[in-house]
Specification:
Radius of gyration: 24 Å
Helix content: 25-40%
Number of strands: 20
Distance between the termini: 22 Å
């Protein structure tokens, strides 16, 4: 199975990740073309081959035009504000004097960034993954500053070059064919960083929150600089399935993404390895898809059943992944229901608000969960009633589930006046020879 292994012995940042992807073969022109769909201006990309500690790779930078350069002045307090001190990210000319001239551009909040991405012409996959990365950062910043994720103002991550880094990283992975991603253990430096709120110890608070929320272990080394930036941490948290040494990896291409600073103890590069993982008993890897969803729950003992039914219909129509309620026994021996909503992580606030407004809930519990999903394909089978769409679920290249699609069967039942059950049975029988 096509896999990407990130050898992050010197940490990871957004620009280093994209540099490595370009070195692996991602077309920089195609990347730039896709980024234009984001409708963000005031920058141009700079890609060059260079060396760091005698290792040749690609240096990727987002160069801001003069009137946008202020956006990097406090560009993510742990991402770019100290870039000219530590050189891990973009080496920009920070111009504080311009800070108030374009205040509306500098202070993008999470809602503004969601709107920017949602209304773009980017692919659905890039939109989903980009928003997930921003959501991870927003949750971390919200915990640090004591506010809800949607209320987080991205003074720095909302700047043009960080938006390009995050969305560009997702585009690059899509252009690479959306391989499964694995990573070496996370190694971070020691010491202090300068940021918008003063001097803070490494790891930076947002980096530690992002990695901790995903359950990713961090080990510090003797390098006296920041190695993992919040953007780098969020990329790892979103895409990497596991963290450990290479197992059964046959390398076909190797790319290096270069940082700016000259480290004291290790080359400031990330090594990305594209190849195939051989499936053996000792490397029990699978090609299932993974994502992170939000689980919203509330206990209700005083809700009208009709209102509950309406809520389920309304929430599913609004884009929830699933909605269900379970009978429970509550305090004082009162019968009640546990109402559960499953949704995309970046939609959690929207559906939390819906639960509070549309039900009798006084509070909503929220947690996140990782999913493992079969890779899905859709085929059309011919039956005596007409064509039916069948959804296939594959694991490691083999079909393990096959299910006729309800809407396809329902429409055919209406057209032919045949029983829905008969159409299901015919579709399953028509598929069996291919199984």
């Amino acid at each position: 199975m096509k896999s990407l292994y990130l050898d992050i012995f010197s940490g990871l940042s957004g620009d280093m990740f994209i540099g490595a992807m370009i070195d692996l073969g991602v077309d920089a022109a195609a990347l730039e073309h896709e980024l234009k769909k984001l409708r963000v201006s005031g920058y141009h990309l700079h890609v060059k081959r260079a060396q760091k500690s005698q290792i040749e790779g690609v240096k990727f930078d987002v160069h801001l035009h003069e009137h946008h350069a202020h956006e990097s002045h406090e560009h993510h307090e742990h991402e770019h504000a100290h870039a000219h001190h530590h050189g891990h990210e973009h080496d920009h000319d920070h111009t504080h004097e311009q800070e108030h001239e374009h205040n509306h551009e500098e202070h993008r909040d999470f809602l503004a960034i969601k709107q920017l991405i949602h209304t773009s012409a980017l692919s659905a996959w890039v939109k989903e993954k980009s928003l997930n990365i921003f959501y991870r950062i927003a949750v971390a910043e919200g915990k640090i500053h004591g506010c809800a994720p949607d209320k987080v103002h991205f003074h720095e991550v909302g700047a043009v070059d960080s938006i390009v880094d995050i969305v560009g990283a997702c585009i690059a992975l899509e252009l690479l064919g959306k391989p499964r991603v694995f990573s070496a253990p996370v190694t971070e430096g020691t010491g202090w960083i300068k940021c918008a709120h003063g001097r803070l110890p490494i790891p930076a608070p947002a980096t530690l929150e992002i990695l901790g929320a995903r359950g990713i272990a961090v080990t510090q080394c003797e390098e006296p600089h920041e190695l993992v930036t919040p953007t780098g941490a969020a990329i790892l948290a979103e895409f990497a399935e596991s963290f450990g040494p290479m197992r059964g990896l046959v390398a076909s291409r190797i790319g290096f993404g270069l940082g700016t600073r000259d480290n004291k103890t290790r080359p400031n590069v990330v090594r990305a390895i594209l190849g195939e993982i051989t499936l053996t008993e000792s490397t029990a890897a699978h090609d299932w898809e993974t994502d992170t969803i939000a689980i919203l729950e509330t206990n209700l003992d005083d809700i009208n059943a009709e209102i509950l039914g309406h809520f389920v219909e309304q929430t599913l129509a609004a884009g929830a992944l699933d909605v269900f309620h379970t009978p429970i026994q509550m305090k004082k021996n009162r019968p009640g229901v546990l109402l559960t909503v499953l949704c995309a992580a970046n939609d959690a606030d929207k559906f939390s608000e819906l639960m509070l407004r549309q039900t009798s809930a006084f509070g909503v519990r929220r947690s996140t969960a990782e999913r493992r999903k079969l890779r899905r394909e859709f085929i059309t089978v011919e039956t005596q009633y007409g064509p039916v769409t069948v959804k296939l679920g594959k694991l490691d290249g083999k079909i393990v589930q096959a299910s006729p699609e309800y809407e396809s069967c329902r429409k055919l039942a209406e057209q032919t006046q045949a029983p829905l059950k008969s159409i299901y049975e015919a579709a399953q029988k028509a598929f069996k020879p291919a199984h």
